[in-house]
Design goal:
The chain is mostly beta strands. The chain has two domains: 43 residues, no CATH class; 304 residues, YVTN repeat-like/Quinoprotein amine dehydrogenase (Methylamine Dehydrogenase, Chain H), CATH 2.130.10.10. It is 5% helix and 41% strand. It contains two helices and 30 strands. It has a four-stranded antiparallel beta sheet with strand order 4-5-6-7, with no helix packed on it. A four-stranded antiparallel beta sheet has the order 8-9-10-11, with no helix packed on it. A four-stranded antiparallel beta sheet has the order 12-13-14-15, with no helix packed on it. Strand 16 and strand 17 form a beta hairpin. The longest helix has 12 residues. The radius of gyration is 21 Å and the shape is globular. The N and C termini lie far apart (69 Å).
């Protein structure tokens, strides 16, 4: 028989109906405020069709993939690797000028990617999927997904400290840990004080090995023992944090999120200072630059550049106003961003304006 996964369909507001009179199937998919109607004509007997789980369906290669929704960018030595919707993973060996699509075994929506070395990388996404690459992102294999978990949830970020030790975080307080390069993943969320299951949105590590997690409802966590245990940090804010960036200076970090809120700490999160910025746009991703300054991107085309202390941020709005979710420094003083519309570069005039603004 035709076997649609009703659990997956209902999760996005859909339903399946069979019209016995015409022998046609109607699949209704509710996507946000829109309703998509897909009618499948059965030219062969129903028994000839079988549902294939997207987790078992390789991502298709498309020339337009570089313009699709992309959500994270990471460096694998000199190579750039980006991930996004429909299992799209692309890599570039020329600072983002040209891109090739990787071999990916699943159609899952991918949210984040981490490369602790030039060759070893991990990507995570919806359906609790975890993918692994051993060749710098050229090809990937699936290590873990929701079928391996008693409590599945989308994974929103991943961080590997080396080739063996890594953590993946996600919705509803999901926290997974591995110490064998992802061969086994252990549910670690009981080690956080998060009984309400607030989403965990971003994870990072500073130069001294201290880990930080930023999450919903103003929650920020710190670990000084490689994720073995976690302390809840008191931040004077109840909104959601979407990103966290550590500075080159020990104990200095910046958290940011919905509503344009930015908070900085100089003592590893024991105390916090709110930084005023001229935007209420959601701030989604950021990175530390070689000169110690910080770049943050977000919705409404927002790009913020902060000084090395995180005390001052200069705002630039991209003309297209497209939301960006992640940013990386490439070349000499250039920034490559990913988000809606795929890969973007910040024009030289904007870069100069941001840098000059910090000097004033």
């Amino acid at each position: 028989m035709l076997n649609f996964d009703r659990k997956r369909i209902s999760a996005i507001g859909g339903s399946v109906r069979l019209n016995q009179g015409t022998n046609r199937i109607r699949l209704y998919l509710g996507l946000g405020s829109k309703l998509m109607l897909l009618t499948l004509s059965l030219l062969l007997p129903l028994a000839a069709f079988a549902y294939t789980d997207p987790l078992d369906t390789p991502a298709s290669k498309q020339d337009s993939a570089v313009y699709s929704l992309l959500l994270d960018v990471a460096k694998a030595a000199e190579r750039l690797v980006v991930v996004g919707e429909r299992g799209h993973i692309l890599y570039s060996d020329d600072q983002g000028l040209n891109w090739e699509q990787a071999e990916v075994p699943a159609l899952a929506h991918l949210n984040a990617v981490s490369f602790p070395t030039a060759k070893q990388g991990w990507a995570v996404g919806d359906d609790a999927v975890i993918l692994h690459s051993e060749n710098g992102g050229l090809s990937w294999v699936r290590q873990y997904d929701e079928r391996d978990s008693a409590d599945p949830a989308p994974l929103l970020d991943v961080l590997f400290l080396n080739e063996q030790d890594g953590l993946a975080i996600g919705a509803y307080g999901k926290l997974l840990r591995t110490s064998d390069a992802g061969q086994t993943w252990i549910d670690w969320q009981d080690h956080l004080d998060n009984l309400d299951g607030w989403h965990l949105n971003a994870i990072t590590v500073d130069a001294e090995g201290t880990l930080y997690i930023a999450g919903e409802a103003g929650f920020v966590y710190r670990s000084v023992d490689a994720g073995e245990s976690w302390k809840t940090l008191e931040v004077p804010h109840e909104g959601s944090f979407l990103g966290v960036v550590t500075s080159a200076d020990p104990g200095q970090l910046v958290v940011f999120g919905i509503g344009g809120y930015i908070f900085t700490s100089r003592d590893a999160g024991d105390s916090w200072h709110q930084v005023a910025v001229d935007t209420q746009a959601g701030l989604a991703g950021g990175t530390l630059l070689d000169d110690g300054s910080i770049i943050i991107v977000g919705s409404e085309g927002v790009v913020l550049k902060g000084d090395s202390q995180g005390n001052k941020f200069i705002l630039h709005n991209r003309e297209d106003r497209l939301p960006m979710s992640s940013v990386a420094a490439v070349g000499t003083g250039e920034y490559l961003m990913v988000g809606l519309g795929g890969v973007h570069r910040l024009n030289p005039e904007a870069i100069e304006s941001l840098s000059e603004g910090l000097k004033r």
